[in-house]
Write a structure and sequence with these properties.
Blueprint: H1 17-43, H2 54-172
């Protein structure tokens, strides 16, 4: 056939394991097996009747290596972009959390202030009620004193009246 066609022979050589590992890294697990077989056929002069165009094979290998590199670059770029986005989101979350924490602290301070004001109001109301109660107790005591005095006057007046009535009854008798 031509210079690009290899004929099958019975001579068999094995490829170096390092070379196989290189091909596996370049093509990935799925395509590397096929590429290794092709290389083994070339090395062992066991190519089938099918013509192998070494130029095309070289171009295909170069193309796949470029695609692999482009894919790795793309993955690295996307990975870096994702990391950057995650870092930005982390910063946004931290800022949001700090803002919420500040709002919560302000709310707590406001509630504490309201509680303190209510406490002062309650103390003032209690003092006012205590003063009113003392005034009411003093007024009741004063009324009791006045009533006592009135009762004593009434009793004394009643006794004078009884004594007067008794004296009048005795004079009449």
């Amino acid at each position: 056939m031509g210079a690009d066609v290899m004929e099958r022979t019975s001579h068999k050589e094995e490829l170096n394991e390092g070379f196989k590992a290189l091909v596996t890294n370049l093509f990935g697990q799925a395509k590397s097996k096929q590429a290794i077989e092709v290389f083994e056929e070339i090395v062992n002069d066991r190519a089938t009747v099918t013509a192998f165009n070494f130029g095309n094979l070289k171009q295909e290998i170069i193309k796949e290596v470029r695609q692999e590199l482009a894919t790795k670059d793309y993955v690295h770029a996307e990975s870096a972009k994702t990391r950057q986005e995650m870092a930005e989101m982390k910063q946004e979350l931290k800022a949001e959390m700090a803002e919420m924490k500040a709002e919560l602290k302000a709310d707590v301070a406001e509630v504490r202030q309201e509680m303190a004001e209510m406490k002062q109001e309650l103390k003032a109301e209690m003092a006012e009620m205590k003063a009113e109660l003392k005034a009411d107790v003093a007024e009741v005591r004063q009324e009791m004193v006045e009533m006592k005095t009135d009762i004593i006057r009434w009793v004394v007046a009643s006794q004078f009246t009884l004594v007067g009535i008794a004296v009048a009854i005795i004079k009449l008798l």
